[in-house]
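User: quick one, sequence for these tokens?
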């Protein structure tokens, strides 16, 4: 663990014309910890993390990692690559990050070639190590993405992100499209990666089951603003805001009444 507070987000704001997508969002992710960013579609979750990784420019606010400001434009290719290494992102659809024309092994090796000075033999060895870390072997390494299952492709996307040796891994609805059994496997994989590599996680999701399983703390967004934040166990056990209670009530279970939920939303 470092002495600095890890990722510190302060007062982020993003506007698109007359619409404010993110408004005064602040939180901290300690080194090696796991934070869930929760809210319904349009709550500002994805816009927030796109600003963290540099895919969007914030209109106001700051993002610092280990005391280094990431808010200003990077100066030159070396600084852009260094920032890209620090925070990596895994998307809901792995096709967004996998070239359908390149084998799985080639796709992971591409990241190593971009970020590290390794011999070809060292790169190939590292590719095998990374794929093994996510439960994939030589057969998958030689395959194209279309030859793999959805769960396998998501494992490849995670291996590619880990190849950069990031400080933080952002997972934007990364298990939402997977079957429940595959979700469980991926979540267990991520928990193991966190234990072994000490990578900090930001989980962006609407799924409170995922948040409960794998995060230490939670931030609840509604219409671009944080309405509740705190330790995951406490917030989910005794939510203090009506919107958080509504999200919890919206999880299907015995006695669940979607009509009642609909009236609450309308009100």
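Assistant:
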């Amino acid at each position: 663990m470092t002495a600095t507070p890890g990722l510190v987000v302060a007062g982020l704001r993003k506007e698109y014309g007359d619409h404010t997508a993110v408004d005064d969002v602040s939180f901290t992710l300690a080194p090696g910890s796991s934070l869930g960013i929760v809210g319904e579609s349009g709550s500002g979750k994805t816009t927030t993390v796109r600003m963290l990784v540099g895919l969007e420019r914030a209109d106001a606010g700051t993002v610092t990692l280990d005391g280094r400001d990431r808010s200003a434009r990077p100066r030159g290719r070396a600084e852009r690559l260094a920032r890209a290494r620090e925070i990596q992102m895994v998307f809901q659809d792995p096709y967004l990050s996998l070239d359908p024309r390149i084998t799985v092994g080639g796709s992971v090796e591409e990241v190593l070639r971009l970020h590290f000075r390794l011999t070809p033999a060292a790169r190939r060895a590292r590719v095998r190590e990374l794929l093994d870390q996510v439960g994939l072997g030589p057969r998958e390494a030689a395959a194209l993405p279309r030859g793999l299952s959805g769960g396998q492709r998501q494992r490849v996307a995670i291996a590619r992100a880990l190849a950069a040796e990031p400080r933080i891994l952002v997972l934007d609805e990364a298990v939402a499209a997977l079957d429940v059994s595959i979700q469980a496997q991926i979540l267990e994989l991520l928990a193991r990666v966190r234990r072994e590599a000490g990578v900090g996680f930001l989980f962006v999701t609407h799924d409170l089951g995922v948040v409960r399983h794998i995060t230490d703390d939670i931030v609840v967004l509604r219409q671009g603003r944080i309405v509740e934040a705190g330790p995951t166990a406490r917030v989910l056990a005794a939510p203090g805001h009506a919107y958080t209670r509504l999200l919890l009530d919206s999880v299907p279970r015995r006695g669940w009444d979607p009509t009642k939920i609909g009236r609450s939303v309308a009100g």
